[in-house]
Amino acid sequence: MSISTTGADRRLFIPALRGLYSNLHDGAETLLRVVAGGALVIHGAPKIIDPFGATGMVESLGFYPGVLWAPLLAITEFFGGILLILGLFTRPAALAATFVLLVTVWFHWITQGQGYSGAEKSILWAAILLFFFVRGGNRHSVDARIGKEF
């Protein structure tokens, strides 16, 4: 006996909720993408204002030369966040941001020695961004409007 887990085949405890879940699916996914993108923009805004301000920090993580990596970090967070909000080039933006978040996991867990409790937020954000790398922008995205995506 096989158990199907597709949305149409799932048996709900309250079948009357099927329509509600179906109607909210894309909106909830879009909201998560916009919130994740907005958080990246807010976090990256100070780095855009001073793109070389994080040079010492990125070099302390082993990313040399810092004058290259610090502005790339700023661009990834700020402009990657804007791209995620719009749903434009969603997969590449999410992949780049996932990489940044995995570095912050390393930084908090290993470099700072904070373990899971220090890296927990970065792990959650990395998982969210990985989801959008895999999934793309959905029908409420610029990618969908132009009919092309990575």
Automatic annotation (TrEMBL):
Main location: membrane
Keywords: Cell membrane, Membrane, Transmembrane, Transmembrane helix
Keyword Ribosomal protein: no
Transmembrane segments: 67-86, 93-110, 122-138
Membrane topology note: Multi-pass membrane protein
Subcellular location field: Cell membrane
Keyword Nucleotidyltransferase in annotation: no
GO cellular component: plasma membrane
Secretion signal, residue range per the UniProt entry: none
Family membership noted in the UniProt record: Belongs to the DoxX family.
Official protein name in the record: DoxX family protein
Species of the source: Oryzicola mucosus
Organism lineage: Bacteria, Pseudomonadati, Pseudomonadota, Alphaproteobacteria, Hyphomicrobiales
